[in-house]
Design brief:
The protein starts with a helix and ends with a helix. Helix 2 packs across helix 3 and helix 2 packs across helix 5. It is mostly helical. Helix content is 82%, strand content 0%.
Length: 139
């Protein structure tokens, strides 16, 4: 800690800022995950409705194609869930995803493919909200 004090004029402030940045990033990532999971849940409900309509011979071919795609996504999620219960899951899951990209196999469900776009969107919305709040404080 003595070395850290000599390097920074305000070491406690730097630590607090780093801790706050960590928690904000964690909250943002959890919001993105919540959004992806809610999208996956809605798509699964739509899939079940399409299969139910198929049993009554009321579903179209397009609905069945979309339902089959969602069923494949569901199986992908279950496959990754198997790795979640294994030891060293924080290492094995990213490794499996990376190896899948190298081989050309899409391992993640479609809801999780555009996570970087969702993170950018949440950052943009948060910065706009901060700007709006600061402009209201000025008035």
């Amino acid at each position: 800690m003595k070395i850290y004090v000599h390097l920074h004029k305000a070491p406690i402030r730097v630590i607090r800022i780093g801790r706050r940045r960590f928690w904000l990033r964690l909250k943002r990532d959890m919001l993105v995950l919540k959004d992806a999971l809610s999208q996956e849940k809605q798509e699964t409900k739509d899939m079940l409705v399409a299969y139910k309509r198929y049993t009554c011979r009321q579903a179209s071919k397009e609905e069945l194609i979309e339902a089959n795609k969602q069923f494949a996504d569901l199986l992908k999620g279950l496959g990754l869930g198997m790795f979640a219960v294994l030891p060293f899951a924080p290492i094995t899951i990213p490794l499996v995803v990376k190896l899948g990209k190298l081989v050309g196999v899409d391992v993640l469900p479609s809801s999780f493919n555009n996570m970087s776009e969702r993170k950018a969107n949440i950052r943009r919305v948060a910065s706009e909200a901060r700007l709006q709040a600061s402009s209201e404080q000025i008035k």
